[in-house]
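Narrative of activities, Objective 1.

The group set out to show that a structural description can be obtained from nothing but a protein's sequence at a throughput compatible with the screening campaign. Below is one input-output pair from the validation batch, recorded exactly as produced.
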Amino acid sequence: MDIHIVSSIDSSEFTHLTRTLSKSTVVGLDAEWKPVRSQRSTFPTVTLLQLACQIGDDSAGWDESVVFLLDLSSLPLPSIWEWIKDVLVSPDILKLGFKFKQDLIYLSSTFRAQGGNPGFDKVEPYMDITNIYKFLQHKQGKKISKDTKSLSAICEEILGLHLSKELQCSDWSHRPLTEEQIRYAATDAHCLLGIFKIFQAKVIKEGPLCNHVNEQHQSNVSLGLKGILEMPGCENKLVGRKFCNALDIVQATASSEECERIARGVEVIRKTKPMDESLWKIVRKYGEKLFLRESDRNPKASRRKGKRRSSVVVCEEKQLENYGDWQGPPPWDISLGGDGCPKFLCDVMVEGLAKHLRCVGVDAAVPHSRKPEPRELIDQAYKEKRVLLTRDAKLLRHQYLIKNQIYRVNNLLKNEQLLEVIEVFQLKINEDQLMSRCTKCNGRFIQKPLTVEEAIEAAKGFQKIPNCLFDKNLEFWQCMDCNQLYWEGTQYHNAVQKFINVCKLKE
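Output recorded for this entry:
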């Protein structure tokens, strides 16, 4: 995945973006904004717009794409308003999105607030990933659920790709963006292309599309518009004409200077590569139009909802905030019969934190199932004598079941979360602990390092060791639980240095 950040219209990145769009017929759309914590009379300000452009023809893999991140906090919005509008309504570009209507509302509001009147009111042709997913479910004979699945769940099921959403609520107005935010934003738009690619292959495999459309044969284009109109059944043939062939008809019909001027105008307007036949037919059959009504342009502020926010609710929220403050002692405390070794359970909202904790040598487990119920998390934390780490305030309501075993993490980014946990629980981290646990399963390593010969034997039928490592006289370690092999390569040394810096171990 090739990622480019566009922060100026005079930059080479913006030129690269416009050239790429002229060759792309499928684009994935997404937007990010700083989350709003309370009721407001205005929409959030979109600070990042993602465009994932498919490069090449239908045979190209979806991973051969370029993702552009438009930094709307730096770009002059009035200058790019018309350009973005043209992309959103271009008949030659199929736009993909996941529940993109809300993104479009916020995007339109952002442009209107900064001089980009009148914002945006439609996207066409458009296809929503939720409808594509339902189609794929139906073709597999699966029962279609009434509840809409998250993009993360759809990606994991269709692409086998785990899409972490822990950065969704991070501060997208802060600059510069972190590497994690850049990767997250790009992946969100990029995965839309992958899901559509599978859908497209499925549709094409099933056979011809749009059989009811009787398309005009290429040899008849030279007849001109008048000749076509005089042919029997011309109305059906005209319905089947593609936009990319309309210019040929106009040029064949033009017999005056005025008609020639119109023909040249069509050529100027069409700045993008036309869709190929199969994609055009998919758009005709499954494509949608995303429209904003006038009522969508104003935040829906309800007085009744405001009244429901009683003092009882406010008191409950304050109580939950107080629960998030750690009071201790933790279950591993020696005074409670523990072994003194910190142990945590990270739920799905802080799964990235689990890997960071393992990298600094701390025991950090994850739930046994992908979508655990609150009671399952509570039971696992209690039985294994762990502190449950989460960002879900609702879990704090179960605090009475396991005293001092639930902590709500305040920070959003993994490095900051790691430092928060180290400080709150007074963890002692030293350089010898770094990379001493398996980042894959949380297991411990075999104490004695393996030789190259022992590592090759251990990896047979399980893991491939690159040949370039054999001449480097490296030491290998093996996880005692999942048998994963590790070695002191470049990635290892980079990780060690990273956590030395994050934890400030040299100071």
